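Action item from last meeting closed. Structure (178 res):
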């Protein structure tokens, strides 16, 4: 009987590890795997957040591009109107000089009166165009300033997008080196 008791005690204390039990080396390996999975999950969440932010910035860039395009178009239209008005003024100056020359050469008082009436109409038109020219120049200056502001906003958005892009590249470079 004593023999049986020694046999049972011997088997209990000296039995090899069962396959379902883990050794300390395996436990450390599992801990490393869990840590790596947590790290990967954190990287994935960071990348997803950065991707969401990038989508928002891309939408803002797209919207800002449309604003810049509209501002540019308005400025170009104003410049074209100003150029056209200045060309008309130049033509009218030439017409005024021509009518003055005709008035000076005429001997007939009735023709001279007609030339003076025509000249006064042309001069009144020149004054109106002068006012319009000043308004267009003021509008052009305001539109140029607005365009600069809108382009600065666009540049800031592009910088932010570049920063987000770089923030996505840096963790991926670090992960590839490990």
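Sequence:
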């Amino acid at each position: 009987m004593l023999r049986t008791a020694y046999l049972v005690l011997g088997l209990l204390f000296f039995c090899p590890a069962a396959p379902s039990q883990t050794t300390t080396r395996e436990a450390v390996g599992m801990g490393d795997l869990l840590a790596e999975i947590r790290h990967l999950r954190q990287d994935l969440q960071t990348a997803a957040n950065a991707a969401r932010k990038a989508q928002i910035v891309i939408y803002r860039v797209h919207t800002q591009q449309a604003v810049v395009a509209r501002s540019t178009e308005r400025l170009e239209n104003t410049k074209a109107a100003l150029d056209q008005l200045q060309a008309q003024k130049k033509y009218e100056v030439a017409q005024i000089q021509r009518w003055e020359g005709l008035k000076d050469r005429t001997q007939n008082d009735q023709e001279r009166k007609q030339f003076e009436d025509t000249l006064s109409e042309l001069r009144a038109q020149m004054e109106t165009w002068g006012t319009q020219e000043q308004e267009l120049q003021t509008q052009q200056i305001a539109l140029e300033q607005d365009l600069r502001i809108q382009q600065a906003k666009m540049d800031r958005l592009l910088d932010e997008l570049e920063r987000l892009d770089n923030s996505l590249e840096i963790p991926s470079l670090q992960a590839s080196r490990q």
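Note appended to the action item: The radius of gyration is 43 Å.
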